[in-house]
Specification:
This protein has about 90 residues and is mainly α. It is built from three helices and no strands. It is about 55% helix and about 0% strand. The longest helix is centred in the middle third of the chain and has 22 residues, at about 35-55. The protein starts with about 30 loop residues before the first helix and ends with a helix.
Amino acid sequence: MPESKRRKKDVGYTPPPSMGERKVARLGSPAWLAPMMVICFLVGLLYIVVFYIAGSQVPIMRDLSNLVNIAIGFGFIIVGFVLSTKWQ
């Protein structure tokens, strides 16, 4: 009885042909993120400190209520925390 032909096995792996230039994925955060985060923290903290120390003498702070002034300071701090969640 005749023997059937044996299948030839592929030796190794041949990668598919390249489709051109590949883009490299960037890991990490944008360069502006960390400085902006620190700036937001500091501006919020300084706003609250200035409001408590000299708020009655600063025209813009004097015109706003106490709650609004505290909200502005904490708003900057909250933006800093939101940016910190994006930092890698």
